[in-house]
Sequence to fold (403 residues):
Amino acid sequence: MRLAKLALLKLAVTATLLTACSSAQTRPPITEGISVTLADVVEQEMIPFRGYAFPPEMLTWLRANRVVMLGEVHGVVEHEELVLALLKELQNTGLRHLLLEGPQAESWLTDQYVLGKIAVLPPLAEKYMRSLLAPLREFNNTLLDDQKVHVHQIDINHADWAFPSALAMMRTAGLSHPSVSTFLNAIGTASSTGKNFSAWRKENSKTYLDLLAKLNEKLSVAEPGKSRDTSLTMVEVAQESLKIRNIWDTEGENAAHPRREKTIISLVENLLELEPGPVLINMGGFHAQLEHVMGTPKVWVAEHLQKVSAQAKGSVASVYVALARQQAGERVLFDVSDTPEPGELFALINTLTTDSNVYLPLEHKRFGMAPIPVNYLGQVVHHSPQNQFGAYILLRSGQMRER
Fold:
């Protein structure tokens, strides 16, 4: 299904999941009553685990859902390690698709890289995702072709040069549609570097938009096929990205976000329609909300998949992956133990275990009742977390990746 058609889909806000647990335990139920505290419930429900030895309870829950959505803190080394470890667990039971918050223009090239078909990542994936994608490529190399995990990038192109740069890489590899050459020839050397292209586009805005429109027209009437379909989706997202970034730059981020989320949702829906199996989505934590409480008021990806999507059919496991401590080298950026708010959830977990990661399912009714203070890297939000996520994973520490 084309992006233009999919853009008509209703939007929804979404949250995404991850869970972890240690060996299964038999735990006595908490007696209901006024004397039951949040600390009682948390101690009863939480499951500590070492490293990425995920609890069986968590894996069982994730495998029971079509969509597993992880909400991340961007740029954390331990989160990338967690994604890779979880992906390997879920691959054993049929997972073949990993969706990432990266520029759609580089999606096809990134997938070809992790499948071992090209040797070099496109520039933005190289800069921001290599530490996840290179180990995934190595893992795929141990698998048969029909068992390998594909990668899809589902965000708009925040950098305007990502699109022509990706087309140029595809042409060099002999993998682009013939119509692309006319477009790239018209741009000339402007597509060779990001700064060159951005400057050229600003000076030749109308010319560039006309070239995009002509490329869209040519591809729309071309014979369907992998090369044509891939290129056409890239063009459509590139056109939409320019409009969204213009709103972002002139009216602000909040004004642009709903339209951006709509594009992301369309790309996710397109994949879910084409591929019937389970998928793992990894995005910033706000996108994993099943109901809005943080960020721009709108329907986020997880909410759409949970409440609207005919493909996901509500089968969504949404997990917010939080940090007890965030560091850049030796410098501490955040420590949940410094939270001044009494009864804050992650600080409470921190007092119950100090040397393990923790999986906390949010099924208990206490998590859906009165608002609970939750510290999201310094922003304390009072909400009933059961409405936003299916579970939390609290990583003991998170080291920011060097770029």
Remarks:
- The first strand starts at residue 47 and ends at 49.
- Residues 3-156+258-399 form one domain.
